[in-house]
Design a protein that fits this description.
With 179 residues, the chain is mostly beta strands. It has a domain of 108 residues: Jelly Rolls (Sandwich), CATH 2.60.120.40. Helices cover 5% and strands 37% of the residues. The strands form four sheets. Strands 2, 3, 8, 9 and 12 form a five-stranded antiparallel β-sheet that branches. A three-stranded antiparallel β-sheet has the order 5-6-11, with no helix packed on it. A two-stranded antiparallel sheet has the order 1-4. A hairpin with a 2-residue loop joins strand 8 and strand 9. The N and C termini lie far apart (137 Å). The C terminus is likely disordered. It is found in: Secreted.
């Protein structure tokens, strides 16, 4: 026969629950894990760590420079076609960026470069000289034939990219050294 139920006095709800449910038993074994949830919200920022040790000093790179001073000491006869003006003497040629036989200069780094050109024309010769940047003419010197010798001078600033070429071309006629 079923166990006898205690008499209900109606004084508390706990007694009512005990009448319906009985006493609490021991916990049972855990069930299998459920499906994992998504990432949670980011937590607050942590404290900064200790400052690290000072590193070794780096090696200072060599400054890149481009400078040259060249001359043509003998005259150069022209033709009716353009050709590069070659040079015979280099007074200064930092890093060898100017090629004497071709007369072309290759920029070592991007920047604005200053060029100064001096030409002497004489004996009634007409002289043309073009300073180029790659394939584009940037400056021109021109001396018309006449009874007197003429010295021409041109200064220019050229913005160049690394390895842009700057040859001096002359078109026909005569280039005489300016001693």
């Amino acid at each position: 026969s079923p166990p006898a139920l205690p008499a209900w006095t109606g004084s508390s709800q706990r007694e009512l629950l005990l009448l319906k449910l009985g006493e609490h038993g021991d916990h049972g074994p855990f069930g299998p894990d459920g499906i994992a949830g998504g990432p949670g919200l980011m937590g607050p920022e942590g404290k900064s760590g200790l400052r690290g040790q000072t590193g070794n000093p780096g090696i200072m790179p060599e400054p890149v420079a481009g400078a040259f001073s060249v001359a043509r000491l003998s005259s150069q006869e022209g033709t009716t076609e353009s050709r590069s003006l070659s040079f015979e003497t280099a007074f200064v040629n930092v890093a060898g960026r100017l090629d004497l036989p071709s007369g072309g200069y290759a920029a070592p780094v991007p920047g604005v470069y200053h060029f100064n050109i001096n030409v002497h024309s004489w004996n009634g010769r007409e002289t043309f000289l073009h300073v180029m940047r790659n394939e584009d003419a940037c400056a021109a010197l021109h001396a018309q034939p006449g009874q007197r010798s003429v010295s021409l001078s041109q200064s220019l600033l050229l913005p160049l990219h690394t390895d842009d070429k700057v040859p001096a071309l002359h078109l026909g006629h005569h280039i005489q050294p300016d001693n």
